[in-house]
Write a structure and sequence with these properties.
CATH architecture: 7 Propeller
Distance between the termini: 33 Å
Radius of gyration: 19 Å
Number of domains: 1
CATH superfamily: YVTN repeat-like/Quinoprotein amine dehydrogenase
Helix content: under 10%
Strand content: over 45%
Strand order of the largest sheet: 1-29-28-27
Low-confidence stretches: 1-16
Order of helices and strands: HEEEEEEEEEEEEEEEEEEEEEEEEEEEEE
CATH topology: Methylamine Dehydrogenase, Chain H
Mean pLDDT: 94
Structural class: mainly beta
CATH class: Mainly Beta
Length: 336
Amino acid sequence: MKKYVLVIASFILLSSLYAQVSVQVLVSDKKISMRGLSVVSNKIVWVSGSNGTVGKSIDGGTNWTWMTVKGYEKTDFRDIEAFDAKTAIIMGIAEPAYILRTTDGGQSWTKVFENETKGMFLDAMAFWNEMSGIVVGDPINDKMFIGRTFDGGKTWRTIPDGNLPVVEKGEACFASSGTNVAPLSLSEAVFVTGGTKSRLFIRDKKIDLPIIQGKETTGANSVAVKKVKKKHTIIVVGGDFTTADSTTQNCCITNDDGATFTAPKEAPHGYRSCVTYLKKSSWITCGLNGVDYSTDDGVTWKLISNTGFHVCRKAKKGDAVFFAGNGKIGKLVYAR
């Protein structure tokens, strides 16, 4: 009897935890696709997207300032990294690919990187701190593009050709949320690929992922890392973006840097383009058909919203969580 009481009590506690979170839509009328999102603090939030658009809030998402970057009105800025209300870096994806930087809150932008190589397509950026960052792009001549900055994005340099990871035909990254690359340690990053082949790239290893793959619309879209001392929990999400409701092989978890993987007991409820670690054992993931929340390191996922978003990010300095998607911006709300 005590065993069953304990199980029931645990179920009630878990259900109440999920019931305490929801998604509040803050913006719903923008006629752009937003895939870039950087949450500096509980107050300062930046977004970027199509048609050269950048948005900024300094009051936690209540009010927004919108700007179109002059000279880049047709550029799709699919990732953004911000450090405060004045300083941010945006990534324009393709032919030519650009990285721009502002230090005056978006009033003016300086071009700090340009690549006109045929086939150039940038996918995502990640930063370890305000100085050190990485950008990854789709393969050219079967080698992934990787660039690094060590001065806060003022200058970028490409990794030597001989050190660039070689991939298979049809294997690339998805520029779906700016999160297919993530810091792993103080000096290392991990990234994931999709398409005909979906793999986890960590150090000098290429590790096959138990994620649906084989078509150019399938594979891993996002990776997030939880670091506790020297141990990592890495969660990868993806799927097939042409079947938004499918839960087939859309998420996997590793606690030993890819030596072994487990699948969730209850998977996210569809294709997912972004996953983010929050705190303790809590994670958030989003996609075209909604948002899922986990309180047990990804073992079970509960659908908390049917509103679709491309990207979800937690504040670097704070606990606020924001979302961005097609014309929409949302915020995670904790019931009190």
